[in-house]
Amino acid sequence: MSLTPGQLRAEAEAAAAGLPTLLLSAERLAAALVMGAHGQRRAGTGEDFWQYRPASSGDAVRSIDWRRSARTDAQYVRDREAQQAQSAVLWVSAGQGMDFSGGPDRPTKLNRARLLALALGLALLNAGDRVALAGQPPRLGRTQGDRIAEDLLRHAVQPGDDDPLPVGTLRPGQRMIVLDDFLGDPAPVVAMLEQAAAMGVRGALLQVLDPDEEAFPYQGAVLFRSGSGAATHDTRDAGGLRAAYLARLKDRRAHLTRAADQAGWHFGTHDTAAAPGQALMWLWSVLEG
Amino acid sequence: MLLLGPLGFATPWILSALVTLPVIWLILRAMPPSPKLVRFPGTRLLKGLTDPHPVARHTPWWLLLLRVLAIAALILGFAGPVWKPAADQGLGGPVLIVMDAGWAAAPDWAERQTRALRALDRAGSAGQPAALLLADGRAGGQLPFLPATELPARLRAATPVSWQSQYPEDLDEALAAAPETGLQVLWLSDGLDHPGRAELLAALEARGQVSVIPPLRGRASLELVSGDHPALRLRTTDAGEPPVVRAVGPDPLGIERELARLTPGEPATEAGITTRTIPIDLPSELRNRITRFEIMGEPSAGAVVLADDRVRRRKVALVGDDRVSEGQRLLSPLYYLRRALSPTTDLVEGSLADVLQAAPDVVIMTDQLVPGDEHGLDAWVQEGGLLVRFAGPRMGADEKLGTEPLLPVRLRAGGRDVGGALSWGDPRGISAFATDGLFAGLTPPADATVRAQLLAEPSPELASATIAKLSDGTPLVTRAAEGEGQIVLFHTTANAEWSNLPISGLFVQMLDRLVQSARTQELTLDAESAEQPFWTPRLVLDGFGRAGGPGDLSPVAAVDFAKGPHPGAPAGLYEASERRAALNAGGPIALADWPGATVESATTAPGLSLRGWLIALAALLLAADALGSAFLARGRGGRVAA
User: Fold this and answer.
1) Which residues fall within 8 angstroms of residue A238, CB to CB, at 6 or more apart?
2) Helix (H, G, I), strand (E, B) or coil at A91
3) Phi, psi (5° rounding) for residue A244?
4) Closest chain A residue by Cα to residue B33
5) Minimal CB count within 10 Å: which of A79, A211, B110, B152?
6) Cβ separation of A216 and B36 shorter than 8 Å?
7) Is A42 inside any structural domain?
8) In a domain, B324, yes or no
9) pLDDT tens digits, residue range B357-409?
10) Distance CA A49, CA A47 (A)
């Protein structure tokens, strides 16, 4: 899609209008998380003390810790724990199905997913990780948070119902967090998980759902229509379909959980009526653990 | 017609559609409600699911009731319900429809036709024979009674005529085919009395029952009152606000249009007829252009007055010696008269005997004595003509001037010169006109002078005969009555030889006053006018007052012409050589009374038709149904929007 500079600027301004609020709420969420560096439990370059060891022949003179060496006759070198910045890649699906809210008191699933992704991204940045949206190079630093927020908003609602992870965005050694409703065809997701397992990529899937999608509170004659209109379902008795729908939803979750477990990933769910911090804590814990 | 108490149905078989109502009820009830549209991302999870036990939601009962009521109202409405329908004509008897077809029936002719057609329709469905008596005075002989189905075509083709309704002369012959008793008569009257109406009513009442349907609205007629100051007489049958009377004629571009609206005078009501006199008080130039007067909104020949010679411009005959015209036009007295009179009058020129044939209103003679008496000028003046004479040198030099007839005053031979080369004094001016005389209000210009004049013999009558005089008191214009008419003498010439009066504007104004004072010639419509025994139609009105060509109408003998409009001579404009006369339909009118007959009130006669109300009710119910459905849909749509 080609945009004229005028349109681009207008869209950018519209997107930027939502940015401060998104950043603020994400920062508030991120501040609640416990900070921790990813220590490698071995000596290397880093900030924290790891051990004193006797200096050997290869050590430079200036690396000797003279204060420790003065207590004995041997020379000691002060080792620091090796610290390595990890890189994490976020993906928020922006299909038509995500742009849905069952009630005026709830945000759309997409907005909630963006909030969670940005909050997680800020927390990871604070922890010293490289973070980016899928398709962008992961970077360090405070300004990367702003860039992630911009990228999140720039990735507008797509015309189709699904918005799967772009092919080829997986890199070895990365951590991957995918936020989606996972109501579409599960096969691409399972394929992605298998590929990730082969490349050693770990991560988490978070299914963001609206309470209406979890409870199915419909009655009577209803013509259901997906966001893009690609799928419709006409029923005379929506109430009678609830049990079947809930069973299918449960099956889908079980299927995804199984696939995630096999790939070493984690599968979680989030309800837009619930507080976002809960889901954030879960994401943090599975990433740290 | 099916009668259920006070309710009648024109087409009762449509009521059989009412049996379908329960079926419609069931169909409407079983109809599923329209599904509400819900946007739901989880739709893909629903794919392939079937309804476990479909629940048919019922349409709400009140919506169902609305729909069924609307359909019932439609069925009832199309069945043609009539509240308290008019009593049908009795069964079995032959039906006679009398339709007044004169001009007075024209304004609501279509309604009359409809009413008569309805009666014929009923008679046809009842198998009764029927006859149609069109009272236009054209049908004669025995009135045939036919199956009622053969008459509507004739009825539809009938149009009103431009004379008043006329009934058969010989009632016994006309009603020979009618039964002696049991005749059902429907008389569509135009509300006015006509000759022979009472006799016909009596004859019909002797044979059966007569129902009379009077017209819905009042009637109006317009008549021209000829005379010196022609006026219109407006007669109406209702005493309310008078209708608008307008004068129509070509405008300066020749386009036919309304020229003026006339103001009716005070009403005078007598025997139900309100009469108003409308003076035709218009400038002569405007009045000369008028071709017709008509009552606005009254499409009837009786509401139209065609303008003829009685309204139009005066006809002025110029008699004089015109031989000098070849070389010296400006010396001819007739030149000045022509220039002064031609804008406002019709000029006729020729010898005295010739112009009198054209029945002029005014004859102007310049500078000559009356040549003998065989042409009848004397008689013409006695009957009301206006003779205007101008003096001149030849007249003054004639030795027979002392015995000349047809002069207002005796003249002294020779005349006098003032202000000439061989006389003392200056040319005389014209003194101011008497404030109560013919020329009152005109102002003589100071530079209008008279150098020579013919002098009158002094006599006691001279002062009273003088209507304009010079500054020294000698007469300039004298006037005297002669029988019905009058004679006017200008004591000076009509050219600039003796006076410069003819080249002043005053001359035109004086002549205008004189011509306007002339009596218009009564149209002699008497049978004795031997020289013009036939009038040729030029323009004929139909019953609605619309003008048309005469078609193949033959000329009308003067005897018949005098009888007014009738089948052989419809209202219109007729010509006989130079004279134009109009036959106008409007005239005195009188209200008809109907002793012994049933007069149907025009409003309640056909009963109150409920069809329109029922269909309107159905439309209202359907609209309510649409609103109700929309309300329901809105209630369901609430969740979609969320």
Assistant:
1) A216, A218, A219, A220, A221, A222, A224
2) strand
3) -65, -40
4) A221
5) B110
6) no
7) no
8) yes
9) 777 888 999 888 887 766 788 888 888 888 999 988 888 888 787 788 888 88
10) 7
Q: Which of B33, B38, B46 sits opposite A245 (nearest CB)?
A: B46
Closest CA to A126 of A100, A144, A113, A104: A144
Question: H or E stretch including B333?
Answer: helix B333-341
Size of interface A-B (CB pairs under 8 A): 107
CA pair distance B254, B274, nearest whole angstrom: 36
In a domain, B48, yes or no: no
Residue A24: strand, helix, or coil: helix
- For the segment B491-545, what is each residue's pLDDT rounded down to a tens digit? 998 888 888 888 898 998 888 888 877 765 555 544 444 455 678 888 888 888 8
How far apart (Å, rounded) are the C-alpha atoms in residues A264 and A205?
Answer: 11
Would you call B38 and A218 a contact, using CB atoms and an 8 Å cutoff? Answer: yes
Chain B residue closest to A217 (CA)?
Answer: B639
Which residue has tokens 């008897």? Answer: B93
State whether A148 and A18 are in the same domain.
yes
In terms of domains, do B431 and B347 share one? yes
Would you say residue B204 lies in a domain? yes
Query: Same structural domain for residues A271 and A138?
Result: yes
Please tell me which residue of chain B has the smallest CA distance to A215. Answer: B42
Beta-carbon separation of A231 and B43 below 8 A: yes
Q: Calculate how close chain A gets to B41, using CA atoms only, in Å.
A: 5
Containing structural domain, residue A58: 47-83
Q: How many domains in chain A? A: 2
- Under DSSP, the state recorded for B456 is B
Looking at beta carbons, which pairs linking B8-12 to residues 24 or more positions away fall under 8 Å?
A: B8/B81, B8/B82, B8/B83, B8/B84, B8/B85, B8/B607, B9/B79, B9/B80, B9/B81, B9/B82, B10/B79, B10/B80, B10/B81, B10/B82, B11/B78, B11/B79, B11/B80, B12/B79
This complex has an ipTM of 0.71
| Amino acid identity, position B216 | L
Residues A134 and A265 in one domain: yes
- Chain B residues touching residue A164 (CB < 8 angstroms): none
- Expressed as residue numbers, the domain containing B448 is 315-517
CA distances from A126 to A145, B255, B350 (A): 10, 98, 130
A227 → closest Cβ in B34, B39, B639:
B39
Q: What residue in A sits closest to B40 (Cα-Cα)?
A: A226
